[in-house]
Amino acid sequence: MEVKITFTNMEHTPSLDERIKKKSKKLEKYLEGNGEEGSILKWTCNVKPNQHDVDLVLYGPKFTFSSKASAEDLYHTLDMALDKLEKQLQKKKDKWKNHIHHKHEEKVEFIATKDEGFGDIDSEDED
Questions:
Q1: Among 23, 56, 58, 91, which one is least packed by beta carbons within 10 Å?
Q2: Of 4, 19, 25, nearest to 77 (Cα)?
Q3: Does any domain span residue 122?
Q4: Which DSSP letter does residue 71 get?
């Protein structure tokens, strides 16, 4: 997964850059086998007076997820945006897993017989 970081109205520091890359590693467990190759995680951090905004977008081959967060503390804002995106990925991964499991379930047929109280079933065949 490729990580792109953009800062507007603030200074880019190596420690902040390293923290974002470390946080981004948490998302890789949701992507394994489902588009990890070719996916791009784009962080956009913006500072306004007394407010930090973070936009987080994950682009994949067949999906796009995004989240936004705002708070007074930049580190808290980064965590909030990442948690929102992580919840979306968890929900999607659960759907992928359930789809795989439901695909292989055996279909059960129920055949009614006269013994079970369905006496009119064979009446069409007797004519």
A1: 91
A2: 19
A3: no
A4: E
Task: Return the bridge partners of 5, or none.
Answer: 43
Pairing between β-strand 51-59 and β-strand 2-8 as defined by DSSP bridges: unpaired
Residue 127 placed within a domain: no
Instruction: Evaluate whether residue 91 is within a structural domain.
Output: yes
As for how many domains the chain has, the answer is 1
Instruction: Compute the radius of gyration of the chain from its Cα atoms.
Output: 26
- Report if residue 22 sits inside a domain: yes
Overall residue count recorded for the chain in this entry: 127
Give, for all 127 residues of the chain, the pLDDT tens digit. 899 999 999 888 899 999 999 999 888 888 876 556 788 999 999 999 999 999 999 998 888 999 999 999 999 999 999 999 999 999 988 887 776 655 555 555 656 666 655 555 555 555 4
Read off the CATH number of the domain in which 81 is found: 3.30.160.100
Return the number of other C-beta atoms located less than 10 Å from residue 38's C-beta: 10
Give the domain extent around 18.
2-116
